[in-house]
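Chapter summary example.
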Amino acid sequence: MKKLISFVLVFTVLMSAAVFAPEAAAKTRTIKGGFNYSYAQKVLKIMNKSRKKAGLKALKLDASLTKEAMARAAELVVMYSHTRPNKSQCSTAYSWTPETGENISHGFKTPAKVMKAWMKSPMHKKNIMRASFKRVGIGCFRDTYGEYQWVQAFSGGSCKKTCKTKSTKYAAVKVPLKASGKSKVTYAKKVKKIKTAKLSKTKFEYTGKAPKYSVIVKDAKGKNIPKNQYQIEYPRDVNRPGDYYVFIRGLYTSQQFKLRFDIQPQTPIIKSVEKSSYGYTVNWDYSSDVDYFCDVEYSTNKDFSNSLSMPVLHGKSYEIFDYDENMTYYVRVRSHIIGNNTFVYSNWSKVYTFKTDN
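The structure predicted for these 358 residues follows.
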């Protein structure tokens, strides 16, 4: 049989053509995610529909070749190339006949979109429509960040066993970076989808130190999900007032959660309310080294209904001009800052009571 090797690749318009080189010192890199066999079956269906229109025989989805194509798709996370991360040719990833071909792609989120891109490319289409190819392995891998990697591994020869799997299989793939050989796939058992992800506490008062909290991740039954099934990305430089975000990502399921917590400005303490030339001056303080914006609120009602609120851009005092004589007033102060275009407020201070003169 005449030896034929054809390797072609395609990028989405949203992805750059960068090659992700492996780390220099490491021997392997482990990638976690899901093998989507349902999408592989859909790619096959679309592909064979095009072959049928051209009068070609349908390709068989070879079970062994598909298993290898799935592992190969995970390798593309490490290095997007027809050269494998261990520097060997992609042909070493498969147990196929001398007549072979590989299509790869990434970024497309559905079988229809990736097939459309492949069919628009003359070289990819040539592999898909080659009459001498009899079987195919299809890989679809979704990584921790929700990115899809796609592989079509074409071959001649007869298909001994067809792939009928339609589920998603979750796995950790140990990809060799130096040594030759195939990537090692370890299927994960009892992978749980995340139902809720919460922080044990979301409000903190500024102390100059990073706050302490825990992350609570549960499944649909309210049970804790093992920590080896998700990763946590904590914010950096958490030592100033503001709003911060913690990101939770399912290592296998690609689920993503964005959790916010606030480091609130310190709560002001009202020191005094003094009679001034034109009204009453409210004086307050806070022990922070941050110069906050403040809001002063005062009312003749304890519940602060019908209150008046005034902003103080800088400083620790405010003079009340608009008041009624011989009335008891209730006043409180809170500080705030702007973090990521969002106001972060302190708690209201303890209410201070004063009475106006006639």
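To summarize the output: Helices lie at 37-53, 63-78, 111-120, 122-128.
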